[in-house]
Specification:
By secondary structure, the chain is mainly alpha-helical. Helices cover 59% and strands 5% of the residues. It contains 7 helices and 2 strands, in the order H-H-H-H-H-H-H-E-E. A two-stranded antiparallel sheet has the order 1-2. Helix 1 (20-66) crosses helix 3 (103-113) and helix 1 packs parallel to helix 6. The longest helix has 47 residues, at 20-66. The radius of gyration is 30 Å and the shape is rod-shaped.
Length: 238
C-alpha cells in the first residue's frame, strides 16, 4: 500500500504556456492518482473490517468458553476496538482523503506495471522543473515521448490491486469463520456480540441452554406438599 506525499512544486524555469502534450500527461497522471487513492482507501477499509470482525470473534469466544466478560471487560473491549479503528483511520485513511498523491508516485505506479516505458514519465516530471537548463529541443523530445507512452497505457491496468485482493480474501475467510462459529456454537453468538457493542445493556452471559417454558406457572405450593414442575429448554441436545 502506498503513502500520500505532497506534490512537488510546479515548474519555475519557464514562462511558456503548457503544451497540449503537457496537459494530456497531467490529466492522465491525475486519473492515475485518483485510482491510487481509491485503491489505497479500499485496502485500509478492508484492513479495518478484517480487524473488527476478527477481534469481535475472539471476544465472543472468550465470553463463551473462558469466562463471562463483566461490565468492565465489556467496556474495555469496546474501547480497545474503537481506539484501534480510530488510530488506523486517522493515520492511514484521513491522509488519503485530504492529501494529494505525488505525481511522481503516480508515474512510478504506471511504469512499474509497464517496464517498456523505461522511466520516460518520471524523467519528464523530474526534468521539467529544470527546463531552462536543458539543451534546446531536449525538453520537447522528453515531453513527446512521455505523452506518447502515457496515452498508450490504460490507467486501471497501471494500478497494482494485488494487496487489495489479498485483503478481500482475508475478509471472506473471517466472515466464513464467523458464520461457521455461529452455526456450530451451542451458545448464542449474537447475545455475546450485543454484550460487547452495548456494554451499558443488561444482557446476560449466554449459556448452553435457555429456559423457554415452565409448567405450571404461578402455582402455590404449601409446606410439605409436592409439585411436579416441567421445564422446557432450548439448545439442549437431550
Amino acid at each position: 500500500m502506498s503513502s500520500t506525499l505532497t506534490s512537488p512544486p510546479p515548474s519555475q524555469g519557464s514562462s511558456q504556456p503548457r503544451s497540449d502534450d503537457s496537459q494530456r500527461i497531467d490529466k492522465r497522471l491525475q486519473q492515475t492518482s485518483r485510482q491510487v487513492k481509491w485503491v489505497d482507501a479500499g485496502i485500509v477499509c478492508l484492513q479495518m473490517l478484517v480487524l473488527m470482525l476478527g477481534y469481535l470473534l475472539m471476544v465472543v469466544a472468550v465470553d463463551h468458553w473462558l469466562m463471562p466478560i463483566g461490565v468492565f471487560g465489556r467496556w474495555l473491549s469496546l474501547i480497545v476496538l474503537l481506539s484501534s479503528l480510530g488510530v488506523i483511520a486517522y493515520r492511514q485513511l484521513v491522509p488519503l482523503i485530504f492529501r494529494r498523491i505525488n505525481p511522481v508516485y503516480a508515474a512510478r505506479a504506471i511504469e512499474s506495471c509497464t517496464p517498456s516505458l523505461k522511466n520516460s514519465l518520471i524523467n519528464y516530471l523530474l526534468l521539467r522543473r529544470e527546463v531552462h537548463r536543458l539543451a534546446p529541443g531536449m525538453y520537447v523530445a522528453l515531453e513527446d515521448r512521455a505523452a506518447h507512452d502515457i496515452q498508450s497505457e490504460h490507467v486501471d491496468a497501471a494500478i497494482d490491486k494485488t494487496l487489495m485482493v489479498r485483503y478481500g480474501y482475508a475478509l471472506a475467510t473471517v466472515i466464513a469463520c464467523c458464520a461457521i462459529y455461529k452455526v456450530a456454537s451451542p451458545k448464542d453468538s449474537f447475545q455475546s456480540l450485543q454484550r460487547v457493542i452495548m456494554p451499558w445493556s443488561r444482557v446476560e452471559a449466554p449459556t448452553r441452554f435457555q429456559i423457554v417454558d415452565v409448567t405450571p406457572k404461578n402455582h402455590e405450593v404449601f409446606l410439605g406438599s409436592k409439585q411436579t414442575v416441567t421445564v422446557k429448554l432450548a439448545g439442549a441436545n437431550t
